[in-house]
């Protein structure tokens, strides 16, 4: 029996060949990725009587001819000769991929129930997900089971005959020899098609003895995954809180419960690129007019990031005595060209300089491109690694189009929202507290590319300034209603209002008035976490006496870098460390004291970068100050002569942009001292967040790369350097490095 399948976006065809080669006498498989799914290009099944095509709602076991199979593949229907058709119970997905299953044996001859849907893949013989073997979520091969002394069984099922089919759920990652699966599933959902399948089953004979014997000996299983009500009481049994949250009805029918109007939208889980750890039950429940779809009802706040800090369900205490140590997840849900330059690799003639122009260029393909980025750039393993590094907080930047888009904006609407929610759950899993950061507001609060649109500032400014100011307040009204839910009270430690409003180009009083209006809305909606506002680059001393009376409920956010100021980038390596130890420490102490500054102050962005050489850092195509190629198009803001300490033609970015493995030992020593000097300084305030966790090619901006290169402490709370013993030189390190 030969079957070729090359269309995966409709048929969702998966093949894992390892054990099948043993039992079936050989299989050839070649895989490719289509629309983010691993698809079989070709398979050959020898001497197997299988049903590779089943319509939704119909369970059929039969032998087929090549022609029947090919016809079914081509027109999406089945001309079945089922040996057994069983009543299909209600099926729900639980954790997005596998686990939490109840077993149910199908009795041959029962009718197919209309509107019931099989959302599992059909496996042959032993093809049941091994996640039920006490290791949920893992992919375990038959060979591994044998090596583990489990004999020739999976889920306690004996090895079956070649013609027996078993219902199971496929694993979404497909390393070799992982999960034996050979099946297609179609979304044929109408009652007419189900009735036709039943009629075909009845007329062609429901009781073929040979296969019934196989069924009896092998036991057919259907994974029934029960999806709980998404907003209800938590897993600790806090029933008192459940009445304060809406509940969704249990939708046990799978995709048939997704309204036609919402299919292939963000409200249709079966259209999502990635379903890992998402609840796949459809629900239209909203909180703050924002969807809860994808969330589970239970949560556990008992995790502890490390032994130096309390678990999530314990009080943190004062951030003035226990400062935050965290990292940003920059470039993930709000794009930034220097973090992921691969997304901006276009000819300059295309003018792709920010997320606005990128999504305009991509058009209909924006969803596929960006959702793949959301799903793959930051994963659960990153949150685990962050906690393993001795960090205890994450700052998650996202932008307003996660909530809403306006007019004819090209931004991808609300797709990043569910990835934000999943990221919050992963942070919870590893005990990491969260600093929510609205990185881009309607109209752009700074005109920089990381706000979404580079150029004019149309927030509190210009003819649409008032409109965009109100839209921004509306965004915070919805966000704060959503995140005031009980499930977030232990998780969200800080709530950011506006990242880096450029107050040097805006009315300072207008920004202050907007901030106070936003504070009133967010606090009024029940957010208990302190609110965060940016210093606006006005100078910390200028915030003394401004917005007083808020205590610790309003925190000033300062971002410290030495590379965007021509007076600082020219510092030698040792001078940069002295500046961090002396000037920044003094600023942190003064700003944190209401007699000399605003009061509560945090440092939510900093890095180890000592040059501005990273590609696209200063905007796409603008060059850099280090080499003297920084051309903004305006003479007064351009830097067209070298600004490294040597201030001559020896200023080159080659070494700065080299891979971390090529750095010499002296430069590594400097980078580690520079990082720990900044940690020392910023802990004189409410704490710090490194910018950023991951980059494609800028290691001085990547905490992940810094750890791997040994230029960051293995544990953020165990450091070798402090500012009491400043270095005088780094032998072997040129100042134009």
From TrEMBL:
GO terms for molecular function: glucan exo-1,3-beta-glucosidase activity. The chain crosses the membrane at residues 211-231. Its main location: membrane. It comes from the Eukaryota. The keyword Transmembrane applies. Residues 235-252 have a biased composition (Low complexity). The keyword Endoplasmic reticulum does not apply. It catalyses: Successive hydrolysis of beta-D-glucose units from the non-reducing ends of (1->3)-beta-D-glucans, releasing alpha-glucose. GO terms for cellular component: cell surface; extracellular region; plasma membrane. Its EC number is 3.2.1.58. Residues 132-150 have a biased composition (Polar residues). Keywords: Cell membrane, Cell wall biogenesis/degradation, Glycoprotein, Glycosidase, Hydrolase, Membrane, Signal-anchor, Transmembrane, Transmembrane helix. It holds the Pfam family Cellulase. Residues 131-150, 235-267 are annotated as: Disordered. Belongs to the glycosyl hydrolase 5 (cellulase A) family. Glucosidase involved in the degradation of cellulosic biomass. Active on lichenan. This is glucan 1,3-beta-glucosidase.
